[in-house]
Structure prediction request, 116 residues.
Amino acid sequence: MAFKLNSVVPWGRNLAEYRLMFLLNDEDMKKKIAGFGDGPASFNCEATRQGHNITSFDPIYQFSTEEIRGRIDEVRDVVMKQMSENTDNYVWTHIKNLEELENTRMSAMRLFLEDY
Ligand SMILES: C[S@@+](CC[C@H](N)C(=O)[O-])C[C@H]1O[C@@H](n2cnc3c(N)ncnc32)[C@H](O)[C@@H]1O
Prediction:
């Protein structure tokens, strides 16, 4: 079955979030890292700029920058609306509120698109 971009919710985290999420310490970062399902995260871009060796895999990479940017623009408001309706289901320790969440996600995805 063909992979359709309009069924994907591209939503990307940044390097700092990846390091927390996967407990990546400085020694881990010296290894070759394969990121499966990295999507529009800025993990690869930021880590590569720091000299690390990251290879990302994701079916959305068959699409162009403009196609992925278009899909991000389509889902952004939908995701943020759902988040605003479910704030009690999330822990707001690192990211303090919805505005910070949206800014963090959009800046990660902007970096991804610049680098892609
Ligand atoms: C919500 S995004 C999260 C991206 C990134 N992991 C992050 O945390 O910032 C989920 C990603 O998983 C990808 N994905 C879905 N099915 C996949 C599969 N079977 N293999 C690899 N990636 C997949 C999607 O294309 C999408 O880019």
